[in-house]
């Protein structure tokens, strides 16, 4: 795009052909020139500044859930992101108990994740062969973790259901009817599989997340079977592709910047900081969506009541008002100041913020840290098997494949 193109034209061009493009220079221009921009192709107002995005995520008086949005909710109905107030707090707490509570996170989940990383890591082919890291490691680890947590490890079709539901949800921005129909079919199969388990757990609860969902009461009533099924499908969508893509981004940038890989080899204390840094530098989820509850003034622009508002959290993570040298990938950036709980007030917006901050952030952090530690321990270095894989996606963004050659540590 020439310098004379408007910021709206430049952003529309990115939306039209995002494959391989670097959106961060466009985001910088938007933060400077049009921090609240009406974007016709999205039929939405787009926010790019850290302060405005944080306000959108935290201020429930100004912004609320957007109902009937395209995406995963059209496949499996109303989910936790569409809830608010007491209902949201109570229902989120059920998942949080299992995903964030030290009792499970520090023992059961830790064992599950470490076991999965080791199991899949050991099967990776090494040089001179090519390893497909997406299908060989970064996808099966979070997929296996959710299957275990929901006690659905025996469902041999779990991976296919996941792939079809996700493809029909967040990623189906063009609303392809064939993809949508496949997603609905996968959802129906998943629901058929999970329904007898729900009945069983109603009478005989076990020690896993599905039993928690079947047992909890809200306003004196248990969640309906529909709600439990919907939660199950939501967790498949929220907890797998996100971490998978985050790991793909991490590996890609450690190959592109081998001096950062070497820093980690020399000092594994930096692992936690490196994971936080990749979530800042190249978050897998770029966008969160809300609706304006009233006419709102954002940096002098009026956003009318009822408008769809899309916050590019990826842009917030590169705002110089919040981060020094934001375009530099520095694995030591958060050393000594990691926020072990990824609390609501942390500056990195990869997990959102406010009441809907990602409930699975500690699980994702654990999966990423154990995977990175494994790679550092097992391999001296790695390189792309071919060209550098381009990033694709507007809402979720990462390379879609990651073929690498792995060189074992001596
Ligand atoms: C690196 C990996 C992940 C990233 C970047 C990520 C990102 C996010 C973001 C940005 C939100 C907020 C969306 C919004 O405000 O509109 C969110 C919400 C959520 N995520 Fe994650 N997520 C990740 C992994 C996980 C995992 C592993 C799980 C669970 C197994 C999970 C479960 C959830 C849930 C339940 C919510 C809804 C929270 C609520 O509404 O209160 N996520 N995630």
List keywords for this structure.
410 residues; alpha+beta; Cytochrome p450; 5-stranded mixed sheet; 3-stranded antiparallel sheet; 17 helices; binds protoporphyrin IX containing FE
Describe the structure.
With 410 residues, the protein is an alpha+beta fold. The protein contains 17 helices and 14 strands. The strands form five sheets. Strands 1-2-10-7-3 form a five-stranded mixed sheet, sandwiched between helices. Helix 1 packs antiparallel against helix 2 and helix 6 runs parallel beside helix 17 (361-378). It starts with 6 loop residues before the first helix and ends with a strand. Protoporphyrin IX containing FE (HEM) is lined by residues 80-81, 92, 95, 99, 146, 235, 238-239, 242-243, 246, 283-285, 288, 350-352, 356, 358-360, 363-364.
Outline of the structure:
With 410 residues, this protein is of the alpha+beta class.
What is bound: which ligands? Answer: protoporphyrin IX containing FE
CATH topology name = Cytochrome p450
Trace the largest sheet across and list its strands: 1-2-10-7-3
Supply the helix-strand structural class.
alpha+beta
By CATH's scheme, which homologous superfamily applies?
Cytochrome P450
Topology, element by element:
Blueprint: H1 7-16, H2 24-33, E1 36-39, E2 44-47, H3 50-58, E3 63-64, H4 73-76, H5 85-100, H6 102-122, E4 131-132, H7 133-138, H8 140-149, H9 158-168, H10 177-203, H11 209-215, E5 217-218, E6 221-222, H12 225-239, H13 241-256, H14 258-266, H15 271-281, E7 287-292, E8 296-298, E9 301-303, E10 308-312, H16 313-316, H17 361-378, E11 379-384, E12 391-392, E13 398-399, E14 403-408
Parallel strand pairs: 2-10
Antiparallel strand pairs: 1-2, 3-7, 4-14, 5-6, 7-10, 8-9, 11-14, 12-13
Helix pairs in contact: 1-2, 5-6, 6-8, 6-17, 9-10, 10-11, 10-12, 13-14, 13-15, 13-17, 15-17
The structure holds protoporphyrin IX containing FE.
Protoporphyrin IX containing FE binds at residues 80-81, 92, 95, 99, 146, 235, 238-239, 242-243, 246, 283-285, 288, 350-352, 356, 358-360, 363-364.
């Amino acid at each position: 795009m020439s310098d004379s193109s408007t910021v709206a034209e430049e952003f529309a061009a990115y939306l039209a052909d995002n494959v391989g493009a670097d959106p961060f220079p466009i985001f910088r221009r938007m933060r400077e020139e049009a921090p609240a921009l009406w974007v016709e192709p999205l039929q939405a107002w787009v926010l790019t500044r850290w302060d405005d995005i944080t306000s959108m995520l935290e201020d429930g008086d100004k912004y609320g859930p957007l109902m009937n949005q395209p995406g995963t909710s059209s496949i499996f109905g109303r989910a936790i992101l569409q809830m608010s107030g007491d209902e949201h707090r109570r229902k989120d707490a059920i998942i949080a108990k299992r995903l964030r509570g030290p009792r499970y996170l520090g023992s059961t989940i830790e064992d599950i994740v470490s076991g999965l990383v080791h199991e899949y890591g050991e099967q990776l082919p090494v040089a001179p062969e090519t390893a497909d890291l997406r299908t060989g490691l970064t996808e099966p680890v979070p997929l296996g973790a959710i299957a275990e947590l929901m006690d659905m490890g025996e469902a041999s079709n779990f991976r296919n259901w996941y792939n079809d539901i996700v493809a029909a949800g967040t990623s189906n921005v063009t609303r392809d009817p064939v993809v949508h129909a496949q997603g609905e079919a996968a959802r129906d199969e998943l629901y058929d599989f999970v329904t007898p388990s729900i009945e069983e757990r109603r009478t005989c609860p076990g020690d896993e997340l599905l039993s928690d969902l079947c047992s909890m009461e809200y306003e004196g009533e248990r969640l309906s079977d529909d709600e439990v099924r919907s939660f199950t499908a939501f967790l498949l969508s929220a907890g797998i592709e996100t971490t998978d893509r985050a790991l793909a981004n991490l590996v890609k940038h450690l190959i592109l910047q081998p001096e950062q890989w070497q820093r980690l080899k020399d000092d594994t204390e930096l692992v936690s900081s490196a994971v936080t840094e990749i979530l800042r530098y190249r978050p897998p989820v770029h966008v969160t969506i809300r609706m304006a509850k009233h006419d709102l003034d954002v940096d002098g622009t009026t956003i009318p009541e009822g408008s769809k508002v899309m916050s590019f959290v990826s842009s917030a993570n590169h705002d110089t008002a919040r981060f020094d040298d934001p375009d530099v990938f520095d694995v030591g950036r958060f050393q000594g100041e990691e926020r072990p709980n990824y609390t609501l007030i942390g500056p990195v917006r990869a997990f959102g913020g406010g009441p809907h901050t990602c409930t699975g952030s500690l699980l994702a952090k654990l999966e990423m840290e154990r995977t990175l530690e494994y790679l550092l321990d097992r391999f001296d270095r790695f390189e792309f098997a071919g060209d550098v894989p381009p990033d694709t996606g507007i809402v979720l963004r990462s390379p879609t494949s990651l073929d690498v050659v792995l060189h074992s540590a001596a």
